[in-house]
Amino acid sequence: MDIKKPDAPKAINPSDVTICEATAQMLRKAQRDGVETAFDRAANMKACPIGADSACCKHCSMGPCRLNAKDPYSKVGVCGADIDTIQARNFARMVAAGTAAHTDHGMSILDLFREVVSGHITDYKIKDTVKLENVAKSIGIDVEGKSVSEIAKELYTELEKTYTQIEGEIPFIRRVPPKTLETWRKLGIVPRGAMREIMEMMHRTHMGVDQQYENITRQFSRTALADGWGGSMVATELEDIMFGTPSPVCVEVNMGVLKENQVNIIIHGHEPSLFESVFESVNEPSLIKAAKDAGAAGINLVGMCCSGAEMMVRHGVPHAGNFMSTEAVLVTGAVDAIGVDVQCIKQGLAKVAQCYGTVMFTTNPRCKIEGAQHIPFDDHNPKACTDEIVIKAITRFKNRTRPIEIPKIVNTGIHGFSHEYISYMLGGSFRSSYTPLNDNIINGRIRGVAGVVGCTNPRVKQDWVHVELVKELIKNDVLVLQTGCSQIALAKAGLTIPEASVLAGPGLREVCETVGMPPVLGLGACVDNSRILVAASEMVREGGLGDSIASLPVAGAAPEWMSEKAIAIGQYFVASGVYTVFGVTFPIVEKTRFHKHLFEELEQMGLGKWGFTADPYEMARMMIAHIDKKRKALGLDKSRERVLVDMADRRSMEAA
After folding, report:
1. Is the CA virtual torsion 182, 185, 187, 190 positive or negative?
2. Among 48, 182, 527, 626, which is least packed by CB within 10 angstroms?
3. Does 510 share its domain with 615?
4. Last residue of a domain, one of 363, 398, 433
5. Judgement on whether residues 317 and 423 belong to the same structural domain of the protein
6. Mind listing the pLDDT tens digit for each residue in 429-446?
7. 80 vs 163: CA distance, rounded Å
């Protein structure tokens, strides 16, 4: 009997899988070196078509049950669950997992804040007292006559409710526009506490519990809102208070930021406390001396992914690349150490690191990886971990044996547009507000605002969808806000500098040139999507654009999403009132009742809605059509163009 031999692995053409020249160069080197990356694994791992459509259920041992996506109502699972129940359960569990990731991150930051406030931790401190007071006031805390310590302790006590409260409404609900909040209360989706919502969501999706897709949708909407207006928002606000609120800074991006003559250390993950401590360690005089004694010109600290984005916007630390470049950067052979904490860490990194002699460290008890060394990171004594990472990196530099090839590509971008800075940038120190933004949307100079966020995914050409989508949006006078890996894709493409305004439509270009800003504003890490929620709420509060987030001429997109966090983010934007379009694939069968519910009926209930297309040009068309629909509903489709007066014009008028 003939035995069929397994198919030989498919070889990828780097130019087909990425538009990032540095990543492509390293993928070619990896092929020469016989090293496998996620791009290779994706090419040789066919996605399960049933799973991709979420037409299967494995929530009990009577299954797994597989339904027919082409004829979804032709059969049901063993327990009788139909396609709508199965899809809603699967989608809900993705929301719950994504919310848990952001919530656990936020709770870690809250724990750190508590210890800093109580004086038990002295390596970190409150850096932004103005933001401390503003955040406290935003949730109803009276700050008059109180010390920084008193305000901080009250803030901690109040924000703890975000996680532990079992009844009532989470604290940041006070920031939600009244009309939006009224809709949430009517639908029963105001989050009580993140732990309760996640727990209830997991219970409801257990076999034999909630079996009505609309009811499941209500709960996963409430769970997602506990992320966007809860866990994520707590993380962002407290990180700003302790580590500093970002303001625009020019940052170098891409693999050319590595230096052959220096000790190169990469930190990759999501929790900035690790990176903040490494930043202190690499500037420790004794460790700098040790590096020079080893023959290095110095120590070069570089970021990857989201914690890299945090340090990029706060300290101007250079950034080597986004999620799909994390293995490729190790192929340079120039990385002496890579330290990781949590989220978006590929297990394959450990093998690639071993191939090139890079020492890899896990630091968080939630994330250990076979083949990587573990150095526990303790907020109470952070430098015990981060000094050790630097020492091991210096040792590796001294004993380098692998050939080094660093792509000579460096791009620059302007990042760090917190919602506070956007308000200041538009209105100045004494008239800080979103009024100029609203006015320019009303007069038609800016068509609307789009949030383009999220991951990169090897199932599509790296960065391409992000870049092409944003080019189309800004060309049509849509101002773009960015977070996460998306902003690194745009920075590499040269779209995050003021000079990129030449690619914008005439109205947006004029605004950018007057203010001196790029048409694409980088806000931070993926957890910082909460900044977009706050900005949207401020737009409503300023007036002229309706009375709820759902009335705004805005849209969102995650063109290359890949994680459960992305689904949670998407759902909290949809539940907040934003039309949100995803690319790559979408885990729902079309023409089912559940699909119609998410893609049509939620909007009819006063929320936002989902959209899907893998094509960036179609995605732009869909988002612009939605923005135009909202403009028409506000009566702005017939608005008259007004002359934008800059400072030079004002001076000439005053002189006259």
Report:
1. positive
2. 48
3. yes
4. 398
5. no
6. 556 788 999 999 999 999
7. 35
H-helix or E-strand containing 374? strand 373-374
What does the block give as tokens for 642? 């007004």
- 598 domain residue, yes or no: yes
Distance CA 441, CA 642 (A): 11
Query: Tell me, what CATH number does 228's domain have?
Result: 1.20.1270.30
**Residue 640 pLDDT class (50, 70, 90 cuts):** very low
Terminal C-alpha separation, the chain: 98
Query: Domains in the chain: how many in total?
Result: 3
Instruction: Report yes or no on 64 lying in a domain.
Output: no
Same-domain check for residues 207 and 355: no
Residue 348 Cα distances to 102, 147, 330, 343, angstroms: 23, 49, 11, 14
Q: Domain range holding 321?
A: 255-398
What does the block give as tokens for 371?
């083949």
> Among residues 601, 560, 551, which one has the least CA distance to residue 578?
551
Q: Which residue has the higher pLDDT, 69 or 226?
A: 226
Asked if residue 219 and residue 120 are part of one domain, the reply reads yes
Distance CA 182, CA 221 (A): 15
- The answer on 434 and 579 residing in a single domain is yes
Regarding whether 339 and 291 lie in a shared domain, the answer is yes
Confidence class for position 650, pLDDT limits 50, 70, 90: very low
* Strands 65-66, 478-483: pairing kind: unpaired
Q: What gap in Å lies between CA 437 and CA 368, rounded to an integer? A: 45
Residue 321 has pLDDT above 50, yes or no: yes
* CA dihedral sign of residues 69, 70, 73, 76: negative
Asked if the structure places residue 33 within a domain, the reply is no
Read off the pLDDT of residues 358-383 as tens digits, 9 standing for 90 and up: 999 999 999 999 999 999 999 999 99
Q: Which two tokens stand for residue 313?
A: 């916007």
Strand pairing category for 335-340 and 359-362: parallel
558 shares a domain with 431: yes
In this structure, what CATH number is given to the domain that contains residue 475? 3.40.50.2030
Residue 397: its H or E element: helix 383-398
Cα-Cα-Cα-Cα dihedral of 96, 102, 105, 110, to 10°? Answer: -100
Identify whether the C-beta of residue 152 lies closer than 8 Å to the C-beta of residue 134.
Answer: no
Q: Is the dihedral of CA 306, 310, 313, 317 positive or negative?
A: negative
How many Cβ atoms sit within 10 Å of the Cβ of residue 9? 11
For 639, the token pair is 């608005």
| Whether 294 and 391 share a structural domain | yes
3-state secondary structure of 448: strand
CA atoms of 601 and 604, how far apart (whole Å): 5
**Cβ pair 337, 270 in contact under 8 A:** no
Residue 310 lies in a domain: yes
- Give the separation between CA 293 and CA 286, rounded to whole angstroms: 10
Distance CA 216, CA 360 (A): 41
